[in-house]
Amino acid sequence: MRQERPSASRSLSGRRSKIYLRRLMWIAAAGLAVIAAWCATLYFIIVGFDGVPKQGAAVRADTGIVLGASLWNNEPSPGLKERLDYAFQLYKEGVFPRFIVTGGLDHNGSTLTEAEGMRNYLVEKGVPGEAVSMDTQSRSTYENLLFAKQIMDENGWASAVIVTHNYHGARAADIAETVGYDPVQVRVTDSEVLMIPYHEAREVLAFTKWLGNKLFL
Hints:
This protein is α/β, with parallel strands linked by helices. Helices cover 54% and strands 12% of the residues. The chain is built from six helices and seven strands; from the N terminus they run αβββαβαβαβαβα. Strand 2 (71-72) and strand 3 form a beta hairpin. The longest helix is centred in the N-terminal third of the chain and has 43 residues, at 6-48. The termini are far apart.
Protein backbone atom coordinates (compact mmCIF):
# COMPACT_ATOMS: atom_id res chain seq x y z
CA MET A 1 0.00 0.00 0.00
CA ARG A 2 1.39 3.36 -1.02
CA GLN A 3 1.87 5.81 1.86
CA GLU A 4 1.46 9.60 1.53
CA ARG A 5 4.76 11.37 1.65
CA PRO A 6 5.39 13.43 4.82
CA SER A 7 5.90 16.64 2.79
CA ALA A 8 2.49 16.28 1.13
CA SER A 9 0.85 15.64 4.49
CA ARG A 10 2.43 18.75 5.97
CA SER A 11 1.32 20.80 2.96
CA LEU A 12 -2.30 19.62 3.36
CA SER A 13 -2.23 20.38 7.08
CA GLY A 14 -0.87 23.84 6.38
CA ARG A 15 -3.64 24.59 3.90
CA ARG A 16 -6.27 23.48 6.40
CA SER A 17 -4.73 25.68 9.10
CA LYS A 18 -4.86 28.69 6.80
CA ILE A 19 -8.52 27.98 6.00
CA TYR A 20 -9.40 27.73 9.71
CA LEU A 21 -7.45 30.92 10.43
CA ARG A 22 -9.29 32.83 7.70
CA ARG A 23 -12.62 31.59 9.03
CA LEU A 24 -11.72 32.69 12.55
CA MET A 25 -10.68 36.11 11.24
CA TRP A 26 -13.99 36.49 9.39
CA ILE A 27 -15.93 35.45 12.51
CA ALA A 28 -13.94 37.90 14.65
CA ALA A 29 -14.49 40.69 12.11
CA ALA A 30 -18.22 39.95 11.99
CA GLY A 31 -18.39 39.94 15.78
CA LEU A 32 -16.60 43.28 16.00
CA ALA A 33 -18.96 44.72 13.38
CA VAL A 34 -21.98 43.59 15.42
CA ILE A 35 -20.51 45.07 18.61
CA ALA A 36 -19.74 48.35 16.83
CA ALA A 37 -23.27 48.54 15.41
CA TRP A 38 -24.77 47.81 18.84
CA CYS A 39 -22.66 50.46 20.56
CA ALA A 40 -23.42 53.02 17.84
CA THR A 41 -27.15 52.37 18.12
CA LEU A 42 -27.14 52.78 21.90
CA TYR A 43 -24.92 55.85 21.65
CA PHE A 44 -27.38 57.63 19.34
CA ILE A 45 -30.28 56.67 21.62
CA ILE A 46 -28.37 58.12 24.58
CA VAL A 47 -27.28 61.40 22.98
CA GLY A 48 -30.61 61.86 21.21
CA PHE A 49 -32.69 61.68 24.37
CA ASP A 50 -34.40 64.99 25.14
CA GLY A 51 -36.81 64.08 27.90
CA VAL A 52 -40.13 62.27 28.13
CA PRO A 53 -42.26 63.95 26.99
CA LYS A 54 -39.95 66.10 24.88
CA GLN A 55 -38.42 69.15 26.52
CA GLY A 56 -40.83 72.05 26.41
CA ALA A 57 -43.92 69.89 26.88
CA ALA A 58 -45.88 70.63 30.06
CA VAL A 59 -45.55 68.05 32.83
CA ARG A 60 -47.01 67.89 36.33
CA ALA A 61 -46.57 65.23 38.97
CA ASP A 62 -47.16 64.35 42.60
CA THR A 63 -43.41 64.22 43.27
CA GLY A 64 -40.02 64.78 41.72
CA ILE A 65 -37.41 62.04 41.90
CA VAL A 66 -33.77 63.10 41.80
CA LEU A 67 -31.48 60.22 40.87
CA GLY A 68 -28.43 59.91 43.09
CA ALA A 69 -24.74 60.47 42.38
CA SER A 70 -21.63 60.81 44.50
CA LEU A 71 -21.13 63.02 47.53
CA TRP A 72 -17.86 64.85 48.10
CA ASN A 73 -17.09 65.36 51.78
CA ASN A 74 -20.75 64.66 52.62
CA GLU A 75 -21.95 67.29 50.15
CA PRO A 76 -23.34 66.73 46.65
CA SER A 77 -20.65 66.58 44.00
CA PRO A 78 -20.72 69.33 41.35
CA GLY A 79 -22.56 67.01 38.95
CA LEU A 80 -25.14 66.05 41.56
CA LYS A 81 -25.67 69.72 42.39
CA GLU A 82 -26.63 70.28 38.75
CA ARG A 83 -29.38 67.66 39.06
CA LEU A 84 -30.58 69.12 42.34
CA ASP A 85 -30.53 72.69 41.06
CA TYR A 86 -32.57 71.68 38.01
CA ALA A 87 -35.03 69.77 40.20
CA PHE A 88 -35.29 72.78 42.51
CA GLN A 89 -36.06 74.97 39.48
CA LEU A 90 -38.88 72.60 38.47
CA TYR A 91 -40.16 72.62 42.05
CA LYS A 92 -40.23 76.43 42.08
CA GLU A 93 -42.11 76.38 38.76
CA GLY A 94 -44.80 74.21 40.34
CA VAL A 95 -44.06 71.05 38.36
CA PHE A 96 -44.18 69.01 41.59
CA PRO A 97 -44.73 69.88 45.28
CA ARG A 98 -42.27 67.47 46.90
CA PHE A 99 -39.12 65.45 46.31
CA ILE A 100 -37.87 61.91 46.60
CA VAL A 101 -34.07 61.79 46.74
CA THR A 102 -32.29 58.50 46.17
CA GLY A 103 -28.99 56.83 46.95
CA GLY A 104 -27.21 54.83 49.62
CA LEU A 105 -23.80 55.20 51.24
CA ASP A 106 -20.81 55.82 48.98
CA HIS A 107 -17.54 54.01 49.61
CA ASN A 108 -15.51 57.20 49.28
CA GLY A 109 -15.28 58.27 52.91
CA SER A 110 -18.73 59.87 53.11
CA THR A 111 -20.60 59.34 56.37
CA LEU A 112 -23.94 60.41 54.91
CA THR A 113 -25.92 58.55 52.28
CA GLU A 114 -26.38 60.23 48.92
CA ALA A 115 -30.03 60.80 49.80
CA GLU A 116 -29.15 62.51 53.10
CA GLY A 117 -26.65 64.81 51.39
CA MET A 118 -29.22 65.65 48.73
CA ARG A 119 -31.93 66.38 51.28
CA ASN A 120 -29.60 68.67 53.23
CA TYR A 121 -28.77 70.58 50.06
CA LEU A 122 -32.42 71.09 49.16
CA VAL A 123 -33.32 72.16 52.69
CA GLU A 124 -30.52 74.72 52.59
CA LYS A 125 -32.11 76.10 49.42
CA GLY A 126 -35.39 76.57 51.24
CA VAL A 127 -37.31 73.34 50.64
CA PRO A 128 -39.21 72.27 53.80
CA GLY A 129 -37.74 69.12 55.31
CA GLU A 130 -41.13 67.42 55.31
CA ALA A 131 -41.30 67.89 51.52
CA VAL A 132 -38.27 65.64 50.98
CA SER A 133 -38.57 61.86 51.24
CA MET A 134 -35.44 59.71 51.16
CA ASP A 135 -34.44 56.34 49.77
CA THR A 136 -31.16 55.67 51.59
CA GLN A 137 -30.63 52.06 50.47
CA SER A 138 -30.37 52.02 46.67
CA ARG A 139 -27.08 51.27 44.93
CA SER A 140 -28.03 51.59 41.25
CA THR A 141 -30.38 53.48 38.94
CA TYR A 142 -32.68 50.46 38.92
CA GLU A 143 -32.85 50.45 42.72
CA ASN A 144 -33.20 54.26 42.78
CA LEU A 145 -36.38 54.02 40.76
CA LEU A 146 -37.67 50.80 42.32
CA PHE A 147 -37.35 52.07 45.90
CA ALA A 148 -38.69 55.52 44.96
CA LYS A 149 -41.72 53.80 43.43
CA GLN A 150 -42.26 51.98 46.74
CA ILE A 151 -42.20 55.34 48.57
CA MET A 152 -44.75 56.67 46.10
CA ASP A 153 -47.05 53.69 46.59
CA GLU A 154 -46.80 53.96 50.37
CA ASN A 155 -47.88 57.61 50.22
CA GLY A 156 -50.51 57.28 47.51
CA TRP A 157 -48.57 59.39 44.99
CA ALA A 158 -49.50 58.36 41.46
CA SER A 159 -47.06 60.28 39.24
CA ALA A 160 -43.47 61.46 39.24
CA VAL A 161 -41.01 63.53 37.25
CA ILE A 162 -37.59 61.87 37.22
CA VAL A 163 -34.66 64.30 37.13
CA THR A 164 -31.18 63.44 35.89
CA HIS A 165 -28.53 64.38 33.30
CA ASN A 166 -29.00 64.11 29.54
CA TYR A 167 -26.65 61.15 29.11
CA HIS A 168 -28.53 59.21 31.80
CA GLY A 169 -32.09 59.96 30.71
CA ALA A 170 -32.74 57.25 28.13
CA ARG A 171 -31.77 54.42 30.48
CA ALA A 172 -33.67 56.02 33.36
CA ALA A 173 -36.80 56.20 31.19
CA ASP A 174 -36.49 52.56 30.15
CA ILE A 175 -36.01 51.46 33.76
CA ALA A 176 -38.96 53.56 34.90
CA GLU A 177 -41.21 51.92 32.32
CA THR A 178 -40.02 48.48 33.41
CA VAL A 179 -40.61 49.23 37.10
CA GLY A 180 -44.15 50.41 36.41
CA TYR A 181 -44.14 54.21 36.27
CA ASP A 182 -47.17 55.44 34.36
CA PRO A 183 -46.79 57.91 32.84
CA VAL A 184 -43.01 57.88 32.42
CA GLN A 185 -41.82 61.47 32.78
CA VAL A 186 -38.10 62.28 32.68
CA ARG A 187 -36.53 65.72 32.69
CA VAL A 188 -32.84 66.06 31.86
CA THR A 189 -30.25 68.78 32.29
CA ASP A 190 -26.98 69.58 30.53
CA SER A 191 -23.72 69.64 32.45
CA GLU A 192 -21.00 72.23 32.65
CA VAL A 193 -18.83 70.26 35.08
CA LEU A 194 -18.85 66.65 33.85
CA MET A 195 -16.72 65.10 31.11
CA ILE A 196 -19.71 64.26 28.97
CA PRO A 197 -17.90 62.18 26.28
CA TYR A 198 -16.59 59.92 29.04
CA HIS A 199 -20.01 59.60 30.67
CA GLU A 200 -21.72 58.95 27.32
CA ALA A 201 -19.24 56.18 26.52
CA ARG A 202 -19.62 54.69 29.99
CA GLU A 203 -23.40 54.89 29.63
CA VAL A 204 -23.25 52.64 26.55
CA LEU A 205 -21.81 49.92 28.78
CA ALA A 206 -24.25 50.65 31.60
CA PHE A 207 -27.22 50.56 29.20
CA THR A 208 -25.99 47.25 27.77
CA LYS A 209 -25.69 45.80 31.27
CA TRP A 210 -29.18 47.01 32.15
CA LEU A 211 -30.74 45.45 29.04
CA GLY A 212 -29.07 42.17 29.94
CA ASN A 213 -30.33 42.31 33.52
CA LYS A 214 -33.78 43.27 32.28
CA LEU A 215 -34.13 39.88 30.59
CA PHE A 216 -34.12 38.17 34.00
CA LEU A 217 -36.57 40.46 35.84
